[in-house]
Amino acid sequence: MVNIIDTWFTVKEIDKNTFAISEYGHWEKVHSFLLIGEEKSVLIDTGLGIDNIKRISNQLTSLPIIVLTTHVHWDHIGSHGEFENIYVHQEEVDWLRNGIKKLSITQIRKDISRDITLPTPETFKPETYLPFQGHPTGILQDGDMIDIGDRKLTIFHTPGHSPGHISIWDRKNGYLFTGDLLYDKTPIYAFFPTTNPVDLVNSLEKISNIPNITRVFGSHNTLGLDSAILIEVKNAVETLRKNDLVKFGTGIHKFKGFSVQF
Question: 190, 262 in Cβ contact below 8 A?
Fold first, then answer.
């Protein structure tokens, strides 16, 4: 049993080769995930960038790490600059290189610095904080498979929250990592200009049809959801479409275990 005590990150062992690295001291309550194979490891997202997540991954594995980016929002790419191998969906290569158009640095700095409940490192300066920008070493598409040795990860393109959002299926363990497509407690967002309600609902339907899921791991709030939530997702998709709610401006729609906001 791994027991890492850290001033910023909370490490939870999901199984002996799978770890959640969480940032509960920030209002976003972001989770990144380290999946260890026989030959390589995968880090799903790199968190807020308030502190260096590589300090944690170095304690958990000595294998080469591939970073799989669920989507290029600032709270998921914070420590990307610490890693050599960064993969992103083809629809968000430009965002990684040049940033998201119409999202001001003033707004990002406001969001990164508010509602923090744990001491931050001296290196964290909200007034000079800059989201990572750079070139990916790998480009992902729907259906790609990442083989890390005795563990194959399937990439599902699940746009809506962002155009290049992906979900990642760990076939061996039945884990589904859903990024910002599905989590509980707070609404799943699809009301910004860079979002798409129709795509989001189509993506929710897509993941609800993946077989043999044992646990669902979203990137915020509760760590690990019962796979039964996917039944509720399927019902929600039908309800939203039936009532003509899948469009901007229809507000927050609550279902059993999750909600969406258009």
Answer: yes
From the list 81, 86, 83, the residue with the least C-alpha distance to 132 is 81
Q: Output the DSSP codes for 140-184.
A: E-TT-EEE-SS-EEEEEE--SSSTT-EEEEETTTTEEEEETTS-S
For the record, the structure tokens of 5 come out as 């005590």
Report pLDDT digits (tens) over 185-211: 999 999 998 999 999 999 999 999 999
- Sheet strands side by side (includes 258-261): 188-189, 258-261, 252-255
Q: What is the pLDDT of residues 77-127, one digit of tens each?
A: 999 999 999 999 999 999 999 999 888 999 999 999 999 999 999 999 999
Helix-strand-coil split of the chain, %, nearest 5: 25, 30, 50
SS3 200: helix
- Count of CA atoms in the C-beta half-sphere (13 A) of 225: 25
Query: What pLDDT is attached to residue 135?
Result: 95
Query: CB atoms < 10 A from the CB of 202, how many?
Result: 16
β-strands 41-44, 30-36 pairing: antiparallel
Q: What does the pLDDT look like over 140-160, one tens digit per residue?
A: 999 999 999 999 999 999 999
Q: What is the DSSP string of 12-58?
A: EEEETTEEEEEETTBTT-EEEEEEE-SS-EEEE----SSS-THHHHH
